User: Which sequence fits this backbone?
């Protein structure tokens, strides 16, 4: 029996991602064997990126439910598929903790002896406590991903319980968001800000949330554009939905820029030694170009491009901006992580292969999740209500056409 052309085409599309995954794993293994000090920071960078990608989709979905948004109901499966990246990334993050002594200064003996760090940070940054917090945080996030996905698929199979299961998913979203606010703060402080244990910013968690939410919107937007021309989603992704996603990208990239400017200006104006060291390392030498590039990619280009209504409805424009912002989030994390280990922003072939491998693995996980369920939820009450509305709206037009036709005979 020969494979169908569609199956052969799908398999051909996976050849390049599969090759990049293999090359990324090989580059990581080789680097850990011969030059771990250069590879570990990039494993941390890409692990955090993929973890935040998965949880950002869950946040996007939860916010849609909490606000009672109807327009995004047919896009739910895109968010669900992106959530599936989280278990894979979480496993990698917990495994990376085995090399924490090479990554985090606070794990080295005597590091706080001549430091002005406060006693609270000394107590907070203890390896067992950090590991437990990370384990609890990632477990909570994965639990809600599992609950949402399982209930969503159950709704497809049990149409008689559609409304009950719809309300159950909404309750999951209500429970998730307060827990997310707390655990997300733990996560970004334990894995990112602790790379420089003497530095602190009271707005850092808020800044990271703004960027993470933009990452989720960009990923969902890119998925919606790519799936719009498919036979199963031809009528599920409408132009007005693309417009709404475009408006969200425009609004929340500006929100990210506002938090970015607030954090930078407050620290610059305060000029406190414990705060300015972070920015001194990132605004001197070749790092200054990356610092400026970060702001250009994550705000100036999206803002100027998405000003018009036409741009917010253009599939090509939205796809391009979404890819740019997903890359911009990587640049933002690159600027947070790598200067703690290197004085220059140099990237070798191994580091590029690791990043490409992580991106390809995320793509493969999302693609498999999309194939395991209908791209449009089968028994979603919101979609059923919208279909009923369209039917009632079409009835007068049909009746009018019959009347006109009858009168002409």
Assistant:
């Amino acid at each position: 029996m020969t494979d169908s052309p569609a199956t052969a085409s799908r398999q051909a599309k996976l050849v390049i991602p599969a090759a990049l995954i293999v090359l990324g794993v090989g580059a990581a293994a080789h680097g850990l064997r011969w030059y771990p000090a250069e590879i570990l920071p990039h494993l941390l960078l890409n692990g955090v990126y993929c973890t935040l990608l998965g949880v950002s989709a869950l946040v996007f979905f939860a916010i849609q439910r909490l606000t009672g948004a109807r327009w995004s109901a047919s896009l739910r499966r895109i968010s669900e598929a992106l959530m599936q990246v989280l278990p894979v990334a979480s496993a990698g993050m917990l495994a990376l903790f085995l090399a924490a002594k090479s990554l985090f200064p606070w794990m080295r003996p005597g590091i706080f002896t001549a430091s002005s760090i406060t006693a609270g940070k000394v107590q907070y940054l203890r390896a067992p406590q950090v590991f437990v917090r990370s384990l609890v945080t990632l477990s909570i996030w994965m639990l809600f991903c599992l609950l949402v996905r399982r209930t969503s698929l159950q709704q497809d199979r049990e149409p008689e319980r559609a409304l009950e299961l719809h309300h159950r998913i909404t309750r999951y979203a209500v429970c998730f968001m307060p827990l997310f606010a707390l655990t997300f703060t733990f996560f970004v402080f334990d894995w990112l800000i602790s790379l420089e244990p003497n530095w602190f910013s009271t707005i850092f968690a808020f800044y990271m949330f703004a960027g993470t939410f933009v990452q989720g919107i960009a990923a969902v937007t890119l998925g919606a554009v790519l799936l719009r021309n498919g036979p199963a989603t031809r009528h599920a992704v409408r132009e007005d939905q693309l417009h709404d996603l475009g408006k969200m990208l425009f609004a929340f990239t500006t929100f990210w820029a506002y938090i970015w400017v607030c954090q930078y200006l407050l620290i610059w104006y305060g000029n406190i030694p414990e705060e300015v060291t972070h920015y001194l390392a990132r605004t001197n030498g070749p790092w200054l170009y990356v610092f400026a590039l970060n702001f250009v990619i994550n705000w100036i280009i999206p803002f100027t491009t998405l000003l018009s209504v036409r741009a917010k409805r253009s599939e090509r424009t939205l796809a391009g901006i979404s890819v740019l912002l997903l890359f911009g989030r990587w640049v933002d994390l690159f600027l947070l992580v790598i200067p703690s280990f290197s004085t220059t922003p140099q990237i070798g072939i191994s580091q590029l292969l690791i990043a490409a491998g992580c991106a390809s693995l995320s793509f493969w996980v999302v693609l498999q999740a999309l194939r395991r369920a209908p791209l449009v939820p089968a028994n979603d009450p919101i979609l059923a209500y919208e279909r009923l509305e369209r039917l009632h709206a079409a009835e007068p037009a049909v009746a009018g056409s019959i009347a006109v036709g009858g009168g002409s005979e």
Q: What stands out?
A: The chain is about 75% helix and 0% strand. The CA atoms of residues 129 and 386 lie 49 Å apart. The chain has a mean pLDDT of 89. The radius of gyration is 24 Å.
